[in-house]
Fold NADH dehydrogenase.
Amino acid sequence: MALPKIVVLGAGYGGLMTTVRLQKELNHHEAEVTLVNLNPYHYVTTKLHEPAAGTLPPDYARVDIASVLKQDKVQFIQDRVTKVDPENKEVSLAEGEPLKYDYLVFGLGSAPETFGIKGLLENAFFIRNLNGVRFIREHMEYMFAKYNALEEKRDDLLTIVVGGAGFTGIEYVGELVDRIPELCQEFDIPREKVRLINVEAAPTVLPGFDQELVDYAVEYLKERGVEFYINTPIEECTDDGVVLKGGEKIDAATVVWTGGVRGNPLLEEAGIETARGRVKVDEYLRVPGYEDFFVVGDSSLIFNDEGRPYPPTAQMATQQGQHLSKNLVSLLRGGSIEPYKFESKGTLASLGRGSAIGIAFGKKVVGSKASFLKRVNDWRWYYMIGGLSLMFKKAKL
Amino acid sequence: MALPKIVVLGAGYGGLMTTVRLQKELNHHEAEVTLVNLNPYHYVTTKLHEPAAGTLPPDYARVDIASVLKQDKVQFIQDRVTKVDPENKEVSLAEGEPLKYDYLVFGLGSAPETFGIKGLLENAFFIRNLNGVRFIREHMEYMFAKYNALEEKRDDLLTIVVGGAGFTGIEYVGELVDRIPELCQEFDIPREKVRLINVEAAPTVLPGFDQELVDYAVEYLKERGVEFYINTPIEECTDDGVVLKGGEKIDAATVVWTGGVRGNPLLEEAGIETARGRVKVDEYLRVPGYEDFFVVGDSSLIFNDEGRPYPPTAQMATQQGQHLSKNLVSLLRGGSIEPYKFESKGTLASLGRGSAIGIAFGKKVVGSKASFLKRVNDWRWYYMIGGLSLMFKKAKL
């Protein structure tokens, strides 16, 4: 008798958490679980701003998938998903044979949301995956090296524009504040030559955050030389900088866009209704109209009691994975499933190595204490997917 | 009464050695010694291939000039020399006032010799100074990072062409042989994707070297994946590779030219007769026709007993500096001067971290023993200019 097939797409927070919990809870011969991912590794998206700045080695933010999977419980396929077909319950891959499923968990990552800004996709960098952030880091260092290697001193080589002052934007700027003095030292460049500019279209930094914490962050970063252009949309990104609304041009060799994400395009391509590529899932995380098609992570859209969408976060994706794995086990065993509700455990935004801001245990925290809690949070994730041994291995890096 | 003015141009091997010996030998009020250098640091040219490959931190190859000068004996001016005028005994600087001299020591560095190869100056990198080698290292790493960040896999990003199989070319290739596996690991690139190609117009690698040693070096490098194109002139260097004589094109994102150097152009511009920019100095290292104008290092041309020119080396520049400083002291004290004769102490060429080839104490040496002797040689230079403290500081790096 054929076992029920569970196919999980994407080894991000949501997909990987679903998979490791399934392999823990399921007995042999209860289901055939397959995880598909483009790379042989999981990367910790919430840490990517650090290797992007060069403050942490990329390997800190990466976990070999094989090292956290039990091969007798889960089959891993390294491939690119090219299509999902919910009518025929089939997933197409770039290299391998199509996969049939009884239950599909869609956890494929987001795509950058450019809000139609001209030239952004072509000319900006995105903090999106491991290859991308190594590229950003090397690009920035290359520009620093180029500055003194050229006869003509081009200040644009030392100008970095970060588009977006949301979570990722502020965390990235915080890392750069730590990193730039090191780069200046390494490449014999006076610190005052380097400009670090954070541009945000919204009227405030870190929209949705507590104002007192926002003020702390802005003050902290301004003191360390960050220039803020708030309430200032970027009109265009060119190959030599950005044009702001109103016409001001900033010449910058490095432009990194952190202004937003949208859902994975494969969902729209499958004919599913989305908003910015995200699917408004039901309370069981199902795509409306399908009993067997679940979406977790950045491609899922969930509303709070006031009817406003929750921002996509690692915290939510992790909870979704935990919750969904329980529901799937129950379904396989003929039981009932429980609705999912997001439960905020607080939010911490780092401001470089030594500081952070946020809410933890219901209280506002700032500075080195917040920074420590943030680090503990990283370790917790490693513990959840790979146990103590993975946690200790990463904590040493 | 005005003191005799000695002006030393360039803090390379020749200029710096002259200066530190003068400050050691001269008493106060015997002369006014001024050293002019573009950068506030001396760089160890024979080590530049290592930071260029990324195998050693650039700071290993750099010495702060202030740290080896006695300020009460030598005045240091950081500036660019724009002109020497031997008729008026004057040196012009880019920023500061012109300097009058009674004795001039010209030790300014060489310029790349391109042999008229089209596009080389515009498109190739040169192992020439600290800013330049940091640029090479960052460029190479950037290309590796770019490879996986692009959708399309461009093999030219992973192709490195080193033009010239002389001393610097072979030493640089040797470092790259060590460095490339590290880069492959760092950027998730299979080693076999990377091509390292050494192109040489002459019929042999390391012309002038003992054949048995040359064979050892070639074998060692070939085993580690180096492709040699010997007896193959480069016709043109473009922005995307090189065209070889006969028309073969190699697509390469990184082209480093090590094929030769010429003397500093300021000498020709001063109306002095040169051969490839180098001055055939007399036996006292003087420019023919001048009693007070000495040239040391790469811009000086000296012939052996068979009438063939010695290649410009750090060893010779160092000896010239030692010798010239003695002659200058003697001149100041009304004594006579001695002719200079090059005395070879052997030659060692490194093949990366673990191996080298060469002649030491009159014997052929290869492998780790030669590599150790090469390292001792570095230390010796630090000892000569900065004593034990500098030597130990560098040995730790």
Q: What stands out?
A: Chain B has two domains: 5-38+79-112+261-343, 114-259+345-397. The mean pLDDT of chain B is 95. Chain B touches chain A through 18 residues (CB under 8 Å).
